Model the fold of this input.
Amino acid sequence: MMERPDNDTYFMRMAELVSTRSTCLRRKVGAVIVKEKRVLSTGYNGAPKGLKHCEEVGCVRENQHIASGTRHELCRGVHAEQNAVIQAAYFGVSIKDGTIYTTNYPCVMCAKILLNAGITEIVYKDDYIDPLSKEMLSETNTIVRRCDLKK
Done:
């Protein structure tokens, strides 16, 4: 009999599944926003609606040799966390006091968006090198914790 996953494992596995929709050539990221153990919104990284995906036109960041964790503005893609917040706004769903499960630690741009959207907890699976993000989040009451998935 299969063991029932705890909530962290359940929602992080959802974020991993969402990441499989990513069209990014460098990093597949998924995010799930939850409140009261209910999924409110999801997002993955990829080009904005109606634009060609990097899979079709190539990666701006690769072509310009931009290091990971830098110059986030030089990219065709919208980050998974951003897309999850946008999806909630698009459909009129309040994510205030919610928790986001994301497959990677959020960059500074995503951290700022999550703070202003009222997310109170960030649960991530893999690290991401962005010292400013970690510094800014440490100044808040936002709970930030790593989730090690149980196999």
User: Anything to note?
Assistant: The chain has a mean pLDDT of 93. The CA atoms of residues 38 and 61 lie 35 Å apart. The first strand starts at residue 30 and ends at 35.
